[in-house]
Amino acid sequence: MNTYKRHRFPPDIISYAVWLYHRFNLSNRDVEDLLAERGITVSYETIRLWCIKFGTRYARRLKKRHRGYGDTFYMDEVFVKINGKQQYLWRAVDQDGEGY
């Protein structure tokens, strides 16, 4: 059975939008902007509905591919100025660059 039947956009575009949303933790409007840069006009509401309908399958597949956390962690640190005041930000990353 074709789960993409009766959708206006082809399955490649739908799967790409849902993948972007789940893989990079983007908002629906961010995905809308990324698709617009590629010449695809789709509303954020449509992307939201696609993520509700197709998202669990993609999220399950992404979790299955995730190898787990590495055994070595590093500190990723940066200095930024916020309202003229210098701030020190850091996060833990594993050897593959996955942040936590």
Task: State the gist of this model.
With 100 residues, this protein is α+β, with helices and mostly antiparallel strands. 45% of the residues lie in helices and 20% in strands.
Rg from alpha-carbon coordinates? 18 Å
Strand content: 15-25%
Mean pLDDT: 83
Structural class: alpha+beta
> What are the secondary-structure elements, in order, as H or E?
HHHEE
Largest sheet: 2 strands, antiparallel
Please provide the count of β strands: 2
What's the number of helices?
3
Could you estimate the helical fraction of the residues in percent?
A: 40-55%
Shape, please?
flat
Low-confidence stretches: none
- N-C termini distance: 39 Å
Strand order of the largest sheet: 1-2
Description of the structure:
The chain is an alpha+beta fold. It has a domain at 11-65. Helices cover 45% and strands 20% of the residues. The chain is built from three helices and two strands; from the N terminus they run H-H-H-E-E. Strands 1-2 form a two-stranded antiparallel ribbon. Helix 1 packs across helix 3 (44-65) and helix 2 packs across helix 3 (44-65). The model has no long low-confidence stretch (mean pLDDT 83).
